[in-house]
Amino acid sequence: MEQLCIVTTGGTIDKIYFDDKSDFQVGEPQIGRILEELGVAFRYSVIPIIRKDSLHITDEDRELIRATIAAQDARHVLVTHGTDSMVQTAQVLSTLTDRTIVLTGALNPARFRGSDAEFNIGTAVGAVQSLPPGVYIAMNGRVWHPAKVRKNVAANRFEAAD
Amino acid sequence: MEQLCIVTTGGTIDKIYFDDKSDFQVGEPQIGRILEELGVAFRYSVIPIIRKDSLHITDEDRELIRATIAAQDARHVLVTHGTDSMVQTAQVLSTLTDRTIVLTGALNPARFRGSDAEFNIGTAVGAVQSLPPGVYIAMNGRVWHPAKVRKNVAANRFEAAD
Amino acid sequence: MEQLCIVTTGGTIDKIYFDDKSDFQVGEPQIGRILEELGVAFRYSVIPIIRKDSLHITDEDRELIRATIAAQDARHVLVTHGTDSMVQTAQVLSTLTDRTIVLTGALNPARFRGSDAEFNIGTAVGAVQSLPPGVYIAMNGRVWHPAKVRKNVAANRFEAAD
Amino acid sequence: MEQLCIVTTGGTIDKIYFDDKSDFQVGEPQIGRILEELGVAFRYSVIPIIRKDSLHITDEDRELIRATIAAQDARHVLVTHGTDSMVQTAQVLSTLTDRTIVLTGALNPARFRGSDAEFNIGTAVGAVQSLPPGVYIAMNGRVWHPAKVRKNVAANRFEAAD
Predict the structure, then answer these.
(1) Does the pLDDT of residue C49 top 80, yes or no?
(2) Is any Cβ of chain A less than 8 angstroms from the Cβ of C151?
(3) Considering chain A, what is the average pLDDT of its residues?
(4) D109: which chain B residues are within 8 Å (Cβ-Cβ)?
(5) SS3 labels along chain D
(6) Stated pTM of the model
(7) CA separation for the pair A39, C108 (Å, rounded)
(8) Fold of D4-160
């Protein structure tokens, strides 16, 4: 893996508490800081393309994400994304057949104790350098084909779709 | 991946502070607790075969690890191991060619703030379900062939060997 | 200090992320869990009287908090409260002159990495057993008289009032 | 409290893992970093006088600690110290009757998840600005007179002495 291209789109993984707003919103992408503190042994670049809760990601946004990735040289791409519409974005990206793209996110913000963010980023990093070209989702420690996974909202986890 | 077989051998990843001993030793394996708290979507079993700092792992220990894995049905195996002699153990396991085996560990104990343990376990989990049969090392966010990696002790990180 | 009476009212200290609501709200009081995990050497009881962001605490709520404390035997009381109107509640409690009451809270939720919650609870615990009867606020590592402190909202910290 | 003088002597609170030594030793004092990250509202200075496990603190060391404090102008002093001989050092400091001195430490290193360090530092900070001149120990959430407390080594906690 020559260089990992990371595209960030917002989502729970990047939610932080803004005390002056008495509210909890998507903040700066966390993945760059996390990988830097870990001292990872690969080169990477971060493109913070949008910063949205994925319930609010539109088809225009998905096309923007697709076009952004298509314009990059990197053959390995990691996308951080909200969990609510991650499957839909993965399906839109499926037209990009010449690189390995793994989407991940978190069910608890990276800034929260007990967050799944670092583990999920790790799963995606392990998968993206190991898989053949295609689009995949890494959540709950599994690597999924987008057509075969869904988020079970009530259970707050990803599971195999019929 | 039907079921992940996890073999634990000790190492820094499992070191904890024993206040009554005023010392810091390998304790109970952490990986089971970590995966349970994360709510991973795969079945796994944990075989805590030895509990040693890897500077003290002997050839007999390595043969025990190999024989333990060989006796399991699982085609996917994750081994947690100290970082100092991880490469040597990986080389001994290379005779097992019919399953995917990924070794990982941590440079800072799982119980420590800022530990690389969860990220490394994630990398190994993403890799083990994505790679063809063989033996691999997952450290510092990369997936390595054991013949092509070494631990740079002074720099406290894994890097490509010549 | 025979027994510490703890009254919880909500506030940022108890805010958690509800993924199914895609929102961040006051959850269960954290202080009981925190003190239990720390193994503190004093007896305490927790009265979770209300669960509100303190911007929404009313005069009726303040009277309820006052009456609740007045009805207890304990001479030492710790109140966890949102930071936005903590000073106002402290002023209402000033009519209770026969016990030591310390209010505290947090600028970052207890569940967040880097939260000030445990430190603030510690400051309040150290103060409540050391001070003469009266009402005090413990924030940012200082113990304040309610008439002489305010929250600087822009700076997100407590400071001496003129 | 005009300014808090902090004297650090080592102990479990400052123990960190040195991977290159495959060992766990007293490292740099943690309290300055902790107070800075918390944004406390008081001025303080840190005097890192010794860096020892308190089982190895000698009478000469205790005299050095006493003389160091005696030479300072500050009327409020916080000492971080190993828990094993904290009571002995507190007794030596009891000859300093003109200032408020609180000793604290931790049963788990500050760098460890679930450490009692921040809570204990908070307890000591709340106590040191609230108590009359004298020497005190703040552990397990209580403020103790040195003559009336001991460390129960087997139970790994502080308790009232007969």
Answers:
(1) yes
(2) no
(3) 95
(4) 17
(5) CCEEEEEEEECHHHEEEEHHHCEEEECCCCHHHHHHHHCCCCEEEEEEEEEECHHHCCHHHHHHHHHHHHCCCCCEEEEECCCCCHHHHHHHHCCCCCCEEEEECCCCCCCECCCCHHHHHHHHHHHHCCCCCEEEEEECCEEECHHHEEEECCCCEEEECC
(6) 0.88
(7) 27
(8) Rossmann fold (3.40.50)
The subunits that touch chain A, with at least 3 C-beta pairs less than 8 Å apart, are B, C
DSSP assignment, residue B102? E
Considering only CB atoms, which chain B residues are within 8 Å of A116? 38-39
Q: Do B122 and A127 touch (CB under 8 A)?
A: no
The residue among D42, D109, D53 whose CA lies nearest residue D76 is: D42
| pLDDT (tens digit per residue) in C125-159 | 999 999 999 999 999 999 999 999 999 999 999 99
> Of residues C135 and A113, which shows the higher confidence score?
C135
Q: Is the distance from CB of C146 to CB of C137 less than 8 angstroms?
A: yes
Domain limits, chain A: 4-160
* B82 closest CA partner among B59, B46, B50: B50
Q: What is the pLDDT of residue A31?
A: 97
On chain A, the residues whose CB falls within 8 A of the CB of C108 are 17, 19
Q: For residue D31, what are its two tokens?
A: 């309290």
Mind listing the pLDDT tens digit for each residue in D15-62? 987 776 667 789 899 999 999 999 999 999 999 999 999 999 999 999
pLDDT digits (tens, 9 = 90+) for B135-162: 999 999 999 999 999 999 999 999 999 7
Angstroms from D22 CA to nearest CA on chain B: 8
Hey, what amino acid is at A155? A
